[in-house]
Design goal:
By secondary structure, this protein is α+β, with helices and mostly antiparallel strands. It has seven helices and 21 strands.
């Protein structure tokens, strides 16, 4: 097969994983605007792998990513990227959990009703629970580093401080103006996260309405100290989630989803206060100290599904965007899918490419 020149815009999890997949087949350059890769959404996640998170249409990508994350090949990583924790979805109204369980009825995802009061001590009032045992913590830094290392071994050139600023169509390819100089490529992949629509506009593509939303996480010290055996606990109504961290700490989020713009986003005090307020209303523990706080942008297409495929109108322009709140846990399958759509390898088992096609948004 002829090797093509592929430029991938963005070296977060999406761009890095796809670069690693394409490396054996194509001459790939990975362009990153920042001084180091992973500075934006990828470096700010809550680091879990949950087959229920993102809904039933995201689940096939999460499930198909499971085997590589659980047991990576020895030439990719020495140990698993996952550490099983389990997930407990909470609701005051049991009908909410029945509807959620129904969504995953034929998916093969193990999920069952469970009394949450036996799992999370100190819950205030009556809660109902849905238990998903497979949920795990992901070592996001290790996964991103493993993809970048695999890409580098395959000859991919990573260019940091190389923001894309302009483009020209030249013959069958593209000439790209970047802060690090000009790049010639046959195919361009838009893996620019929150900037995906802005990057698309540089190619004259019609934006798909991919919008960034701010999400806040705080690391707190609590009394009593959190047991390391706690699962990921998610309020099914979208009020909060938390999971334990070493030293009796918790990572806690108010599950905020504030429309924002692409930039280096910072947490707002109001969201930190909201997180603590909702947490202390749900359990009878006290937040003693906020030790860290951060915010990141989760970018969604209007139907909240990712966008993988060639643009309908712009030649050689491929979308790899809209990974919302599930871009880490779906990365292995998404990268494999995108490589297949770029003509390299096969679509992962159980994944329907049509569900993620950009064409669905421009019909
Ligand atoms: C608080 C929070 C919690 C989350 N928790 C989870 C979780 O538990 N599990 C999970 O699976 N997902 C989670 N996510 C979602 C996940 O982090 C994202 O889906 C994922 O990181 C998206 O990766 P990306 O590579 O598309 O985006 P990014 O990591 O944002 O990378 C895009 C890159 O493109 C670069 N770029 C932009 N414009 C240009 C340009 N013009 N030229 C060159 N480079 C450019 C940017 O600098 C950036 O580095 C969470 C996200 C947040 C914010």
């Amino acid at each position: 097969m002829t090797r093509r020149r592929v430029a991938i815009i963005g070296a977060g999890m999406a761009g890095a994983s796809l670069a690693a997949e394409l490396a054996p087949h194509d001459d790939v350059v990975l362009l990153e605007a920042e001084a180091q890769p992973g500075y934006h959404a990828t470096g700010r996640s809550a680091a879990f792998w949950s087959e229920t998170y993102g809904g039933p249409l995201v689940q096939p990508l999460t499930t198909a990513s499971g085997p590589l994350l659980h047991a990576p090949p020895a030439d990719f990583a020495e140990r698993s990227f996952l550490r099983t924790r389990g997930e407990l979805l909470l609701a005051r109204d049991p009908a909410v959990l029945d509807a959620l369980a129904q969504d995953f009825a034929n998916s093969g995802v193990p999920i069952e009703r469970r009394d949450p009061h036996g799992v999370v001590p100190g819950l205030r009032g009556l809660w109902h629970g849905l238990w998903s045992p497979g949920c795990a913590d992901i070592d996001v830094g290790a996964l991103h580093a493993a993809y970048l290392a695999k890409a580098r071994r395959g000859g991919v050139k990573l260019r940091c401080d190389a923001r894309l600023t302009g483009t020209r169509r030249t013959g069958d390819g593209w000439e790209l103006d970047t802060a690090a100089g000009a790049i010639i490529s046959d195919i361009v992949v838009n893996a620019a996260g929150a900037w995906a629509d802005e990057v698309a506009a540089l190619f004259g593509a019609v934006p798909l309405g991919i919008r960034p939303y701010r999400r806040t996480v705080v690391q707190v010290r609590v009394d009593p100290p959190a047991s390391p055996d706690l699962p990921l606990v998610i309020d099914a109504a979208g009020g909060f989630y938390f999971k334990p961290e070493p030293g009796g700490r918790l990572w806690l989020s108010p599950h905020d989803e504030t429309p924002d713009r692409p930039h280096d986003v910072a947490p707002e005090e109001i969201d930190v206060a909201l997180a603590i307020d909702r947490f202390e209303a749900a359990v009878d523990w006290r937040v003693e100290a906020v030790e860290r706080r951060w915010a990141g942008l989760r970018s969604f297409a209007p139907d909240r599904l990712p966008v993988y495929g060639f643009d309908r109108d712009i030649p050689g322009f491929f979308w790899c965007a809209g990974q919302g709140g599930f871009g880490i846990q779906t990365a292995p399958a998404a990268a494999q899918l995108c490589a297949a759509l770029l003509g390299r390898g096969n679509v992962p088992q159980g994944v329907d490419p049509a569900a993620y096609s950009p064409h669905r948004l421009s019909e």
